């Protein structure tokens, strides 16, 4: 291995992590690239290896990284970040990219995030938080519906109830505070005003002081066409977003991103990593923060990284060294779009272990990339392991071409009961 090369460990096993592995392995500075635990896609990606350690088994990950001379660990999902994986790696003298536990609370605790925004004048929905049922119910009766009830902690996107009427809001409060459906994540509830407007995401690299925005992307959270059905982790995404006009981006940077990074530093929390703000843009153009994520989005990462021309490893190095103001990210002019194939029943109950067939030879390889999410290989066969199974992503000279190519690729994928939205990108083409 040439001296300049480093072994890289990617923590996680979803589509976002497949995209990270696919991109990082292209860096001339990358030695071995391992993904823990990875999936069927990372298992077969050229130059990438899977490592059979769970993404939340921090002790085992630290031990492996020390042993295998891992030069950089990049963390995909929020759970290990919120659990303190970066602190554990640092304590062992190992480089791990992402916010430390105290800063990851921006995602790990909605009550913490709300207090933080209040303290630093960052626009967000008016709210109160409660850990007792009586107090929460009394407050609900005072403010009335429509209203939003959220479980405080990580709830895999399922801890948010948009209540049209008081009955639904009260049931959500009881369910979270007295039921055990959310475990510790539901021991505090946040009750907040229901904001109206247009939802956009903003994702950037942050080095503790500087911000390097990534290409814009639009995500589709609802399960069904037309934005109907239950909320999911994301059913598709495209980049760039037609909604991210220069005026809006300036406001997001001035009113949300810069005050967030400055506020974290002022509070003594060094934030290094990817920072994702989920925003509601109100009629007057004010960007209100719905939530912070301390990581990249999934599936936004898949089209975003397809468009990235720069070496991602060099950008991450710059962020880790506090040098983001000295680098630039270069993007393909082309558009990229990804469509998620999900298992029948998702985001409710669904079967796993279903055979997934991808007719690779038919795919135009220079324009299409199938990023796996919930797959594994067993006995030479590709099987599903979770609700979101894969994301067919494509580049195109414009969004319509990217969209046509991604949907054409899905014609060559088969899974019993699998489904996908037919309208990803349609509102923008
Ligand atoms: P969160 O996990 O906080 O982003 O919430 C999940 C989704 O619920 C968001 O993407 C929004 O679509 C919606 N949501 C959350 N909070 C609010 C709010 N205060 N007003 C309107 N919609 C909201
Ligand atoms: N796609 C939304 C998220 O990653 O949070």
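Q: What amino acid sequence fits the structure above?
A:
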């Amino acid at each position: 291995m040439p001296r300049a090369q480093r072994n890289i460990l990617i923590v996680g096993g979803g589509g976002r992590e497949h995209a990270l592995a696919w991109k990082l392995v292209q860096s001339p500075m990358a030695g071995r690239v391992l993904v823990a635990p990875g999936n069927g896609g990372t298992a077969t990606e050229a130059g990438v290896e899977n490592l059979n350690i769970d993404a939340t088994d921090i002790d085992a990950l630290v031990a492996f990284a020390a042993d295998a001379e891992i030069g950089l660990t990049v963390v995909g999902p929020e759970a290990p970040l919120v659990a303190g994986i970066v602190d554990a790696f640092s304590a062992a003298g190992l480089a791990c990219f992402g916010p430390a536990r105290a800063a990851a609370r921006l995602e790990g605790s909605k009550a913490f995030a709300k207090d933080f925004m209040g303290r630093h004048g960052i626009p967000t929905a008016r709210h109160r938080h409660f850990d007792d049922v009586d107090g929460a119910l009394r407050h609900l009766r005072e403010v009335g519906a429509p209203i939003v009830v959220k479980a405080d902690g990580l709830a895999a996107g399922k801890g948010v109830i948009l209540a049209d009427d008081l009955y639904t809001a009260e049931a959500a409060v009881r369910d979270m505070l007295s039921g055990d459906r959310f475990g510790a994540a539901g021991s505090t509830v946040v009750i907040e005003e229901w904001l109206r407007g247009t939802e956009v995401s903003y994702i950037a690299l942050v080095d503790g002081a500087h911000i390097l925005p990534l290409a814009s992307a639009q995500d589709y959270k609802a399960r069904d066409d037309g934005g109907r059905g239950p909320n999911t982790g994301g059913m598709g995404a495209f980049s760039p977003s037609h909604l991210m006009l220069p005026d809006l981006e300036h406001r997001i940077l001035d009113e949300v991103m810069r005050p967030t990074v400055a506020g974290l530093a002022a509070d003594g929390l060094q934030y290094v990593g990817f920072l994702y703000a989920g925003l509601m843009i109100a009629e007057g153009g004010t960007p209100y923060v719905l939530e912070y994520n301390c990581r990249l989005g999934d599936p936004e990462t898949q089209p975003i990284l397809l468009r990235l021309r720069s070496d991602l490893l060099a950008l991450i190095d710059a962020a880790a060294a506090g040098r983001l103001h000295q680098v630039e990210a270069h993007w393909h002019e082309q558009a990229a779009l990804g469509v998620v194939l999900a298992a029948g029943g998702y985001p409710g109950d669904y079967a796993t272990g279903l055979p997934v067939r991808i007719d690779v030879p038919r795919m135009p390889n220079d324009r299409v990339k199938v990023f796996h999410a919930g797959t594994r290989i067993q006995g030479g066969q590709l099987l599903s392991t979770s609700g979101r199974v894969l994301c067919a992503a494509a580049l195109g000279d414009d969004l319509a071409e990217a969209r046509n190519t991604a949907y054409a690729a899905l014609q060559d994928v088969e899974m019993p009961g699998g489904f996908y939205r037919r309208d990803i990108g349609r509102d923008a083409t």
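Q: And what stands out in the fold?
A: The chain has 13 helices and 24 strands.
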